[in-house]
Design goal:
This protein has one domain: 2-Layer Sandwich (60s Ribosomal Protein L30, Chain: A). Helix 1 packs parallel to helix 2. The protein is built from two helices and six strands; from the N terminus they run E-E-E-H-E-H-E-E.
Length: 125
């Protein structure tokens, strides 16, 4: 089983990739950035505001796939500046309150659309 997941409640793919792929056991999301799905524009604000939008986008994709943030087992967080770690982490902690998933956080030189944060996830299907 390999199902392509797509929802209008998250930014549309802007290249040859899917918002997520669901297998029999897992949902693998593509990296999500702080794009408002209605306007398809980057949300204004700092890393905290962008992290909030990213996690809302991930939640919408996972919901469409029949999963949820509560079923996430692994995330990768990409930050434009590791100085934004505390702001990102505070918002991230509001979404993952109990038994948070395994996570890596790395600083990268540049992200799509010059956003500050990108997050991808693997969740139980």
């Amino acid at each position: 089983m390999r199902d392509v997941i797509s929802t209008e409640q998250a930014p549309q793919a802007i290249g040859p990739y899917s918002q997520a792929i669901r297998t029999a056991s897992f949902v693998f999301t593509s990296g999500q950035v702080a794009i408002d799905p209605v306007t398809q524009k980057v949300v204004p604000g700092d890393a905290a505001a962008q992290t909030d939008r990213v996690l809302k986008n991930l939640a919408a994709i996972l919901d469409t796939a029949g999963s949820s943030l509560e079923k996430v087992v692994r995330c990768t967080v990409f930050l434009k500046n590791m100085g934004d770690f505390a702001a990102m982490n505070e918002v991230y902690g509001r979404y993952f309150t109990e038994a948070p998933p395994a996570r890596s956080t790395v600083e990268v030189a540049r992200l799509p659309k010059d956003v500050l944060v990108e997050i991808d996830a693997i969740a139980l299907a």
